[in-house]
Write a structure and sequence with these properties.
two-stranded antiparallel ribbon; 29% strand
C-alpha cells in the first residue's frame, strides 16, 4: 500500500505522486486512471512517490490501493 505520508520525514502535504502519463496514466480518482498508451507488464503498475520536503522517493504498486 502507498503510505499516507512520507516514510522518512512524515510530512503528508509534500508527499505526492510523480505523474507519468505514458506509463501509469493520469490519476483522476482514488482508483481511476486515464491511460494515454495502453501497456501491460514491464512494471507499468508501479507509481513513483516523492516528498517535496526531504526528497525521499519510492515506487509502489497502485493496484494494491483500496
Amino acid at each position: 500500500m502507498i503510505p499516507d505520508c512520507c516514510p522518512s520525514c512524515k510530512d503528508a502535504d509534500e508527499w505526492k505522486e510523480v505523474v507519468n502519463p505514458f506509463t501509469t496514466g493520469i490519476p483522476i480518482g482514488k482508483s481511476i486512471r486515464i491511460s494515454i498508451i495502453q501497456t501491460q507488464g514491464f512494471g507499468f503498475y508501479k507509481v513513483k512517490y516523492r516528498c517535496g520536503k526531504c526528497g525521499y522517493e519510492n515506487k509502489y504498486d497502485y493496484r494494491n490501493e483500496k
